[in-house]
Amino acid sequence: METSLKWVPATLVLPPPRRRELVVGAWATRRPARQSRCRALRSCGGCAMCKWSSLPEPWLRGPVLGAEAQLSRSTLWGSIRQGACRLHGKGPQRPATEKRAEETWCSRSVGYRSALRRAEVVINGSSSPAVVDRSNESMKHNIQPASAKWRHNQTLSLRIRKQILKFLDAEKDISVLKGTLKPGDIIHYIFDRDSTMNVSQNLYELLPRTSPLKNKHFATCAIVGNSGVLLNSGCGREIDTHSFVIRCNLAPVQEYARDVGLKTDLVTMNPSVIQRAFEDLVNATWREKLLQRLHSLNGSILWIPAFMARGGKERVEWVNALILKHRVNVRTAYPSLRLLHAVRGYWLTNKVHIKRPTTGLLMYTLATRFCNQIYLYGFWPFPLDQNQNPVKYHYYDSLKYGYTSQASPHTMPLEFKALKSLHEQGALKLTVGQCDGAT
């Protein structure tokens, strides 16, 4: 008799004060419909919910709450048998119910037990079929030095581009265009849907009429992150040789040119940068510093995510006003309202369970549309480098960051793991040490 496969997910909910949601799933055999099988799986589409009424003490103290982990088969099934986990089910045959595992509809389901045996655990939105260690230890020997042979996999790059095009088109989504909005239009913020902003006259004036990347294509692109791993890398000259260079969050370049280069074709500017790097323009000195940085862009694309969260509204307006008042030579771009969710959707579909994509991941996803080969620099979400030397969060300041903090909106180590995998397959080049020719 032919047997098919079905994904069997379950959600484990830890009670307060250590509330966490874990999604458990695995491939389990599903017999053809004419054969008897678990009613719960049939009636609720393969979904069962577990509520943990209690957990062994090591679970409350252990790493499972702070990072991805592979759920112990014996611990999970043992907890279910002991009544620590109660299964919920809804279906037309029976109202919602809660019973001890031995009494539940699926207690003798071979398929469900098989699912538990091969369970893949996703904690706080991240998944891996094996243990995913967010510590620096798991990564320190995994990236080859820059001098190691790397070969571009053009077939894979083209396949990735086609896949991403199903979710977004960078040429269109890189910016809202002037013809789509007018002054006074109301926009709901992406992360604060209950809050709105009105399109100001200044914002309208700076909206591009056509996409800044319309009909653009480049042989090689460099995306320069801001990790301190760039310091003493000597990558500046190599970065500047690329056809198109993308930088993040108005990071300074002049005093770090040897390591990060000078060339800039597109630079992002999160509104929070105005607070963090330019003291919210509290006086003329800080306004002049920002103005000098903007003038140094000299015709580059300035990419401002203006519609993300309400807290950035004033800062976006300050920057827009400066650009117009001083006639700064930049090409402004304001990402479309759908871009962030489209990017996240692509990565989730490919089983990279990120929270909110970082600027670096956004830029890589966009770059696949108009770059033949993509080179990443300054991507390193760990406090130590491969030689166990301390690494600053940013190469240009002393800001601290908790890469594995549950409060972080990003999942940087998980993103890095995905990018490392693409590096190993030749879809992109990831440089985390010294560049060739560095002295």
Automatic annotation (TrEMBL):
Keywords: Disulfide bond, Glycoprotein, Glycosyltransferase, Golgi apparatus, Membrane, Signal-anchor, Transferase, Transmembrane, Transmembrane helix. CDD domains: GT29_ST8SIA2. Gene3D superfamilies: Glycosyl transferase family 29. It comes from the Eukaryota. It holds the Pfam family Glyco_transf_29. One of its GO terms (molecular function) is alpha-N-acetylneuraminate alpha-2,8-sialyltransferase activity. One of its GO terms (cellular component) is Golgi membrane. It is found in: Golgi apparatus membrane. It is a single-pass type II membrane protein. One of its GO terms (biological process) is N-glycan processing. Belongs to the glycosyltransferase 29 family. This is Alpha-2,8-sialyltransferase 8B.
